[in-house]
């Protein structure tokens, strides 16, 4: 245990994060998170964003998506996305881009992308998950 987190997880401000560098689809990343008792990462403020992006070794999926209603972003736990720092010209793609990611390194903000855009070279398929521990 490090900072209240299981081995291999990183601790920041009361949350535990597991960074997994394995390229899979957004849907499968969500399933893998779920199977391990977690969910795709949620980023609530600039403080958390700065820390997370400083740790990144590659592009990653985030939990944010607007699959239910284009332009209305939700986290994978269904909560409304209240903090967004979109990269210049993002979000774009309208209905064809339903996921948010940190998929241009170095990260200068969120990028919207299609969840099945597997032919894009720069697609973000590694994923992070987050879970909250009670201390
Ligand atoms: Ca985009």
TrEMBL record:
It holds the Pfam family Lectin_C. Residues 12-99 form the C-type lectin domain. Gene3D superfamilies: Mannose-Binding Protein A, subunit A. SUPFAM superfamilies: C-type lectin-like. PANTHER family: MANNOSE, PHOSPHOLIPASE, LECTIN RECEPTOR RELATED. This is C-type lectin domain-containing protein. It comes from Mytilus galloprovincialis.
């Amino acid at each position: 245990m490090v900072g209240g987190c299981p081995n291999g997880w990183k601790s920041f401000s009361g949350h535990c994060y597991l960074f997994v560098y394995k390229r899979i689809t957004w849907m499968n990343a969500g399933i893998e998170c779920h199977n391990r008792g977690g969910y795709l990462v949620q980023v609530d403020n600039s403080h958390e964003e700065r820390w997370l992006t400083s740790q990144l070794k590659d592009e990653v999926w985030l939990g944010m998506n607007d699959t239910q209603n284009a332009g209305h972003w939700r986290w994978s736990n269904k909560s409304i996305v209240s903090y967004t720092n979109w990269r210049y010209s993002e979000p774009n793609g309208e209905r064809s881009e339903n996921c948010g990611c940190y998929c241009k390194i170095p990260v200068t903000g969120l990028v919207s992308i299609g969840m099945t855009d597997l032919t894009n070279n720069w697609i973000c398929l590694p994923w992070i998950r987050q879970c909250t521990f009670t201390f």
